[in-house]
Design a protein that fits this description.
single chain
């Protein structure tokens, strides 16, 4: 497939990583929306914890996929112009940081859901 930015052909790996990253970002945003809505509407605690578990898995997948996209964009995109390659790498870096921050936040919220009292 010809790269619309000019330059060389896109590899199948770059196409798959890009589409998978966008898909995982959209799933991540939908889960965050439902979790936020559940805080204002009386969802059951089990449902909120399930949403946090899904958010953890999807955020981990987003972070790993975005890091793979960052590496493949820098290494496999040699035929693309430098500004285009750096813009793609910057986008993957933002996605990786977003995935890691959602992963840390969802893990912290799941731990804090047990309460702050020390266990005996």
């Amino acid at each position: 497939m010809q790269d619309p930015a000019g330059g060389g052909d896109k590899t199948l790996g770059l196409i798959v990583v890009k589409r998978l990253s966008v898909f995982l970002l959209s799933v991540d945003l939908v889960v965050v929306f439902f979790w936020t809505t559940g805080n204002f509407v009386p969802f059951l605690d089990g449902t909120q914890l399930m949403l946090l578990a899904v958010l953890r898995l999807v955020s981990l997948g987003l972070a790993v996929t975005a890091i793979a996209g960052l590496a493949s964009s820098l290494l496999l995109g040699r035929g693309r112009p430098r500004p285009s390659r750096l813009a793609g790498a910057g986008g993957y870096l933002i996605l990786a940081l977003l995935g890691l921050s959602c992963l840390v936040l969802s893990s912290a919220l799941a731990i804090l859901s047990g309460g702050l009292s020390p266990s005996p």
